[in-house]
C-alpha cells in the first residue's frame, strides 16, 4: 500500500475493505503489534503542534484518512487518496471479519458503561466477534498502566481505544510492546456511536 505525505504524516492510500483484509492477514503472520491511527484534520493539526504526538503518528504502522478534510487536502496536493476511512467504519469492518476461533476483541474507553453497551451491540450485530473484555476511559479499571496489565492477561487480537486524541495514540504508543499479536487502533467516539 503506497503512502501519501500530508504535512509530514504518511497516510496509507487504500480502501476500507482492502485495508481491513490486509491487516487481518498481517495479524496472522506478524509477531508484533500493528498500530493504526485514523486521522481526522484535528489529529493532523495536533501533530503539527506537538512533536511527540507527531512522532507517535509517524511511528505507527498505518495512518488512514478519517475525515473528508484529509481526503480533500491530499487532492489539493496532487496526491489523491482512494477514499476516506472513518474510524467507526473500520471498527465495524474488523468486527465483521471476526473469526470466533481466532480473534479476541477488547474495548477500552468511553464513559462508564459505554464500552460495555457498545460490546453488547457489537455482539448482536456480529455474532462471530468474541469480546473478551471492556474498560471505561475514566479510571474504573485504574490508570493506563493498570488497564494495560488487565488487557495483556486476556491476550486480545484487536484492541480498540476510545480515549480521544491525543490520549488514545499516547496510550497505544506507551503500551504497544506488551501486545505482540494485536491490532491496536484509536477509535475516538466510536463506542458512543455504537452503543447508541
Ligand atoms: N474519553 C475517555 N477518557 C478520557 C477522555 C475521553 O474515555 O479521559 C472518551 C470519551 O468518553 C469519548 C471519546 O473518548 O467517548 C472521545 O470522543 P471524541 O468524540 O472526542 O473523539 P474524537 O474522535 O473526536 O477524537
TrEMBL record:
Q: Does the keyword Transferase apply?
A: yes
Q: In which pathway does it act?
A: Cell wall biogenesis; teichoic acid biosynthesis
Per the UniProt record, the lineage of the source organism begins with: Bacteria, Bacillati, Bacillota, Bacilli, Bacillales
Q: Which span of the entire protein is present here?
A: 1 to 196 of 242
Q: What's this protein's family per the entry?
A: Belongs to the glycosyltransferase 26 family. TagA/TarA subfamily.
Annotated EC: 2.4.1.187
What does it catalyze?
A: UDP-N-acetyl-alpha-D-mannosamine + N-acetyl-alpha-D-glucosaminyl-di-trans,octa-cis-undecaprenyl diphosphate = N-acetyl-beta-D-mannosaminyl-(1->4)-N-acetyl-alpha-D-glucosaminyl di-trans,octa-cis-undecaprenyl diphosphate + UDP + H(+)
- What is the name of this protein? N-acetylglucosaminyldiphosphoundecaprenol N-acetyl-beta-D-mannosaminyltransferase
Q: What does this protein do?
A: Catalyzes the conversion of GlcNAc-PP-undecaprenol into ManNAc-GlcNAc-PP-undecaprenol, the first committed lipid intermediate in the de novo synthesis of teichoic acid.
State the source organism's domain of life.
Bacteria
Protein species of origin? Kurthia gibsonii
Keywords of the record: Cell wall biogenesis/degradation, Glycosyltransferase, Teichoic acid biosynthesis, Transferase
Amino acid at each position: 500500500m503506497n503512502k501519501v505525505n500530508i504535512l509530514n504524516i504518511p497516510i496509507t492510500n487504500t480502501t476500507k475493505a482492502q485495508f481491513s483484509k490486509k491487516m487481518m492477514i498481517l495479524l496472522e503472520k506478524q509477531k508484533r503489534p500493528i498500530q493504526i491511527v485514523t486521522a481526522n484534520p484535528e489529529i493532523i493539526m495536533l501533530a503539527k503542534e506537538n512533536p511527540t504526538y507527531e512522532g507517535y503518528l509517524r511511528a505507527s504502522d498505518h495512518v488512514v484518512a478519517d475525515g473528508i478534510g484529509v481526503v480533500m487536502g491530499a487532492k489539493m496536493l496532487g496526491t489523491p487518496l482512494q477514499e476516506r476511512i472513518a474510524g467507526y467504519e473500520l471498527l465495524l469492518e474488523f468486527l465483521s471479519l471476526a473469526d470466533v476461533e481466532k480473534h479476541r476483541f477488547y474495548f477500552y474507553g468511553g464513559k462508564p458503561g459505554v464500552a460495555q453497551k457498545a460490546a453488547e451491540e457489537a455482539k448482536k450485530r456480529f455474532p462471530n466477534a468474541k469480546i473478551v473484555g471492556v474498560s471505561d476511559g475514566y479510571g474504573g479499571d485504574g490508570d493506563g498502566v493498570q488497564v494495560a496489565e488487565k488487557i495483556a492477561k486476556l491476550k486480545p487480537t484487536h484492541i480498540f481505544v476510545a480515549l480521544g486524541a491525543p490520549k488514545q495514540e499516547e496510550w497505544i504508543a506507551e503500551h504497544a510492546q506488551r501486545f505482540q499479536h494485536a491490532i491496536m487502533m484509536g477509535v475516538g467516539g466510536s463506542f458512543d456511536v455504537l452503543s447508541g
